[in-house]
Amino acid sequence: MRSFVLLIGGLICLSGCSNSSSGPPVAITGKVSLKGKPISGAMIQFIPTDKKGAPGSARTDADGKYALMSTKGDAGVPPGEYKVVISRILGTDGKEIPADASPFSTGGKETLPPFYSKMEDTILTATVPGASPSTIDFPLTGQGGAMGGAMGGIR
User: Fold this and answer.
1) pTM as predicted
2) Whose CB has fewer CB within 10 Å in the chain, the N or C terminal residue?
C-alpha cells in the first residue's frame, strides 16, 4: 500500500511539478523588418535560455507582423530570456512557400543570414516581461545586428 501511495504521489508531482514556467504566458506581438521593409512569410521562434521558459513560434504576415503562440497553443510564452531565430525560406521559384508546406520538401532556400536564421548562430535575443500584452519588434539590418531584437526591443 505504501508503494502505491508513493507511486501516486510521484505521478502527481511529475504532472504538476514538471512545469517550471516562470508565470502565465505573456501575449507577444511585433513586426519583423529588414532594412525598413516588412518581411512576410518568415518563421520566428522564441527558444528559452533557462528552464523556466517555454518555446513559442509564429509566422509573419504580409506586413511583417506576428503573434507568438506556445507549443501548447497558448497566445504567448512565459516571462523570461529567449534566444530568437528568424528564418525565411523561399521556394525554388523565389516565391513564398505556403504556410502548410514544408520548406524541406520544396527545395526552398534560406534568404536571411545565419546570424538571424540558425539557432546556433543567431545574435537575436528577447526579454519577455511579466506584463501582457507586449510588443517585441525585430528591425533587422542585415549587417549582423538588430536594432530592437538584440537590444531588448520591447515597446
Assistant:
1) 0.74
2) N
Single-letter amino acid, residue 89: I
**pLDDT tens digits, residue range 84-99?**
999 998 877 677 776 6
| Contact yes or no for 77/58 (Cβ under 8 A) | no
Q: Is the peptide bond before 133 cis (omega within 30 degrees of 0)?
A: yes
Element (H, E) at 44: strand 43-48
On the question of a cis peptide bond just before residue 79, with omega within 30 degrees of 0, the verdict is no
Which residue do the cell numbers 530568437 mark? 84
The three three-digit cell numbers of residue 87, written as one number: 528564418
For the chain, list the domains and their CATH numbers.
21-140 (2.60.40.10)
